[in-house]
Amino acid sequence: MDRLTARWPFARWFPLVLIVVAALGDALTPIGYTWVPLIAAACVLAGVMMSFRGAAWTGAFALVVTVLLDWRVGILDSGTGWVEEVTVFLAVLIGLDVHWMLERRDRRLAAAWSVAGALQRAVLPAPPTRIGPLLVAARYEAADAEARIGGDAYAIQDTPFGIRVLIGDIRGKGIGAVSITTTLIGAFREAAHHTSNLDELAERLEQSLGRDQAPHAHTSHDEEFTTALIAEIDHAGRTLRLLNRGHPAPYLIRSGRVTELQPADPGLPLGMGDLVSQPATTDTISLAAGDVLLFVTDGVTEARDADGAFYDPTQLTFPDGRPAAPTEVLDTLAEAVYRWAGGRRDDDMATLAISLTTSDTSSCTDALGSAR
């Protein structure tokens, strides 16, 4: 009801209107007919739709109206009159009790949401807004807006080998997904500093996830896997290396045009690497000043419109073709996905935008034509 009264503020006055309508109906119909049950129903509704004080005053008004109606037809002291008056009085008590129960539920939900939000911030802390030559922005939206927690993950780390980025999507939801997310990000932050190439880094992540899931063998947990995209940008901001393990491809925004950076040879998700003998191929792409890299999860690429068509981030447009700030890119993307899906969100959506600000980066050819 909170959403109803928030959208239509006058809806909270509906119980009072109902009492007035019931009183008029009772006064205008023959004596053998009574509208008091409708007054009693309005008292219960008042407990749901109004504040406690408002519900109490509405109940008092309903009792006065009931007494006046019974007095008008001469049944105030009769058994019928007492039944009607007691009925309305009990409806007032029920309405106030319902209001108290709803308030207690809201307090518990607010506490749970606060804990979930704190857990989400602990598992996925906001990345720094600037790392070396890069400007960074991140956004996370769970599929259930009230849950505030889901199975997507991202991290960015400055290492001796370059600035490394991880974005992943854990199969599953709830506390199990949070546990895997914690393991994945912790392993990434540690291994990113000690592995010289992305293949080895992905292998370290897969091993960590395997150890984490080993105690759950022969349960539903042993079928879990994680799609992941690992990126590395050199400290000069000239080269991007990508290793894709079954994750949606990232996007390069250059001069306002959005290009999908499809992998030459994508690998299987983490947790499924033992099914193939050859590791995934690392792609190398040249960067230029003003480039923006956009990393997403399948909550973006699998958003559907009313006809069931998937959203394509290459449709994003920016005014005048000017370089967009990372926060502007994420805002524009979120608005576009919201419009495309008609406000629905069936999956978690994590997005990460990185802008190259170094002015001395040399010009380069288009990313699609770069050597891999």
Task: Please characterize this protein's 3D structure.
Residues 358-372 have low confidence and may be disordered. The strands form two sheets. Strands 1-2-11-10-7-8 form a six-stranded antiparallel beta sheet. The two termini are 56 Å apart. A hairpin with a 2-residue loop joins strand 3 and strand 4. Helix content is 42%, strand content 18%. The protein has helices at 2-7, 14-28, 36-49, 52-73, 79-123, 174-191, 198-213, 298-301, 326-340; strands spanning 130-131, 134-141, 152-159, 162-170, 226-233, 239-245, 251-254, 257-260, 282-286, 292-296, 349-356. It is built from nine helices and eleven strands. The protein is elongated and about 95 Å long. With 372 residues, the protein is α+β, with helices and mostly antiparallel strands.
Instruction: Let me know the average pLDDT.
Output: 82
Shape assignment? elongated
Beta-strand residue fraction:
15-25%
Number of helices: 9
**Distance linking N and C termini:** 56 Å
Helix and strand run:
HHHHHEEEEHHEEEEEEHHE
Report helical residue fraction. Answer: 40-55%
Provide the low-confidence segments as ranges: 358-372
Name the quaternary structure.
single chain
Helix/strand-derived category reads alpha+beta
Sheet with the most strands: spatial strand order: 1-2-11-10-7-8
Number of strands: 11
- What does the radius of gyration come to? 30 Å
Largest sheet: 6 strands, antiparallel
